[in-house]
Design goal:
Helices cover about 55% and strands about 10% of the residues. The chain is mostly helical. It has one domain. It has a two-stranded antiparallel sheet. It is elongated and about 55 Å long.
Length: about 170
């Protein structure tokens, strides 16, 4: 259950739309015991004295704060710019996990990369201008997976040689 207290976080539009698809319209209310609620519990602090709630336009992610056991959200309802950036970074990591798994599923079903990206964008109502971002991100992901798979059983020969020298002593 969330409270009537709302905190605003500056966030990319595609991440906001992704969260709205998963958790409903703004203000977003994360499920109980969700990782994001734990982060908010850790990050929230008392606002500075001349504090005015910021408006980031369409980049405003409004979050309904849950009731925490050890913090009174009527007093602890402020996120500094640095904490907002860290929170957005964690949301982006969560987004990438969903994106990569969805892409893998689509490609395993026989779709090409472009079609898979378009299906993902349609499913989560993402803006058209993020297609290049998603394409580049997936290309990096595939390259990293390929390299990990290629080199996972190879050991560094220098380390092995050094261990043999130590055994002789």
């Amino acid at each position: 259950m969330s409270s009537p207290v709302i905190v605003t976080v500056k966030c990319q539009v595609y991440l906001i739309r992704f969260l709205e698809k998963l958790y409903g319209d703004q203000p977003i209310s994360f499920p109980r015991r969700h990782e994001f609620n734990s982060m908010l519990d850790f990050f929230l602090s008392i606002p500075p004295s001349p504090f005015v709630e910021p408006d980031y336009g369409e980049m405003s992610l409004r979050i309904a704060l849950p009731f925490f056991e050890n913090k009174d959200i009527r007093s602890y309802n402020y996120l500094s710019d640095l904490k907002q950036q860290k929170f957005e970074k964690r949301i982006n990591e969560f987004f990438k996990i969903h994106f990569h798994s969805s892409m893998d599923k689509h490609i395993n079903l026989g779709f090409v990369r472009k079609d898979s990206i378009e299906l993902f964008m349609d499913e989560y109502n993402l803006p058209v201008d993020c297609i290049d971002l998603l394409d580049k991100d997936y290309a990096r992901y595939v390259t990293i997976r390929w390299k990990r798979r290629l080199f996972r059983n190879k050991k560094n020969s220098a380390v092995k040689h050094h261990q043999n020298d130590l055994q002789k002593l």
